[in-house]
Design brief:
alpha+beta, five-stranded antiparallel beta sheet, four-stranded antiparallel beta sheet, 21 strands
Length: 436
């Protein structure tokens, strides 16, 4: 079998060379397009669902949100494992499907059952269940640190949320960009219980007044949770809807809103509470370069290329930097693409060094005359002869020309000359061909 392969390869050498060249070109093309990552996608397909329950304890979230949703979702086809977690104000359900299940098909099955689960949720679940974006097994592809000496953390959070985050979300392959240490700027009413007792105002009344003062409040039965417009005006060619603009834009204006009037005295929000720009209660925080700051976590899709996503994010940050003076952006905190690039560089250098060593070995050993003579002695060949015009005997085999160093009793001087076609030398009745 091996003899047939070798002889066929020598006979059709041009076809073999053409095939090898085609495979080489195809391999180089595929190598440049091949996705490279630190780890392969080792995790099974998974879908995560989060439901918010404002003001609910973990026990209430478990009983009123998590358990009803589990009953609806446990019959999903191709489901392997379902896990859940309930914390204050939030329910999390993770569904793991059998290996080999198409992720988009699994998400479609879950979405169909979410429509049935919404009908069983309580009114306190102010927002419907949210199915999070699909993430890869390693998920995080880049961590970006933001710090500034000119902006406080609330202003920096607003810039990161409205400018940087949505710009990075446009990069192909990015699934989500959560922000650690985020402090969204909002109007907050910080009630002093002792002052509220002195003025005879309950917390429920303060909640209702603040909710009704703003455009849309959290209390569903209050006038601010409106289900229709305030009216409209018909003109000859169109209908104009009416909207009552409430002039509340700053904390000072909200503090002047009256709560109630008792005994000829008006109690305002500012009398029982501090109205300031603040943020929600913090659970965690971020430290950037030993100081306060924000950290943006770039998460990628399962089918995204880590190198392409990292380079796309860095290109967008380079475009944003001129328009963000006073903000320091550090994108080298966590970057798996650096490990991949270093590995590729090391592998490339190793291959180049190996190629050079192979060439040196071939040059110093296989091209030396003793090695060729050894190959001549080790690989004798007997083939049919063809006579040339000078009376010598030549072989038509395709071997390398070389001088034969065999010594025989009868040696014809005319046959010592060699050619590039692999000539044979006649020694009496025998002949041998140099193949080195």
């Amino acid at each position: 079998m091996m003899k047939w392969i070798v002889s066929s390869s020598l006979r059709f050498r041009f076809i073999v060379i053409a095939g090898a060249g085609a495979l080489l070109i195809y391999g180089i093309t595929r190598l440049s397009q091949m996705p490279v990552d630190v780890f392969p996608e080792f995790a099974p397909p998974r879908v995560e669902i989060q439901t918010e329950g404002q003001g609910m304890s973990s026990a209430e979230v478990e009983d009123l949100i998590t358990n009803p949703m589990e009953l609806v979702l446990m019959g999903t086809p191709e489901l392997d494992v379902m896990r859940s977690r309930s914390v204050n104000g939030l329910s999390q359900i993770v569904l793991q499907f059998n290996r080999g299940t198409d992720l988009l098909h699994a998400r479609q099955l879950v979405q169909e059952r979410l429509e049935l689960a919404i009908a069983d949720l309580p009114v306190a679940a102010s927002t419907p269940p949210v199915m999070l974006q699909p993430l890869s097994a390693t998920s995080r592809v880049l961590k970006i640190g933001l710090s500034s000496t000119e902006y406080d953390l609330m202003d920096l959070s607003m810039i990161a949320y409205w400018t940087i985050k949505f710009r990075l979300m446009q990069v192909p392959g990015v699934a989500n960009v959560p922000i650690w240490g985020e402090r969204i700027k909002m109007l907050t009413v910080q009630v002093d219980p002792e002052l509220a007792i002195q003025h005879g105002v309950s917390m429920q009344r303060i909640h209702e007044v603040v909710s009704e003062t703003l455009d849309f409040g959290l209390v569903p039965w209050s006038p601010s949770a409106k289900s229709q417009t305030e009216g409209f005006v018909d003109t000859p060619n169109q209908r104009l809807s009416m909207q009552h603009i409430r002039p509340i834009f700053e904390p000072e204006e909200l503090a002047q809103v009256p709560i109630e009037t008792t005994g000829g005295r008006t109690v305002r929000i500012g009398d029982v509470a501090d109205v300031v720009w603040d943020t929600w209660p913090m659970i965690g925080d971020a430290v950037i370069n030993d100081g306060p700051g924000l950290m943006l976590i770039v998460e990628k899709l399962p089918w995204a290329n880590t190198l392409e996503v990292s380079r796309g994010i860095e290109a967008e940050l380079a475009k944003l930097r001129p328009g963000l003076p006073g903000i320091e952006i550090d994108s080298e905190i966590f970057r798996p693409a650096t490990y991949i690039e270093a590995s590729i560089d090391n592998l490339t250098k190793s291959l180049l060094i190996a190629c050079v060593l192979v060439v040196l070995v071939l040059f110093f050993f296989l091209w030396e005359w003793r090695a060729r003579g050894g190959r001549c002695r080790a690989l004798p060949a007997r083939r049919g002869d063809q006579h040339d015009g000078a009376g010598g005997v030549r072989d038509s085999a395709r071997g390398r020309g070389g001088r034969c160093h065999h010594r025989h009793r009868e040696h014809r001087p005319a046959a010592e000359a060699t050619s590039q076609g692999g000539e044979e030398y006649v020694h009496g009745a025998r002949h041998s061909r140099c193949l080195a």
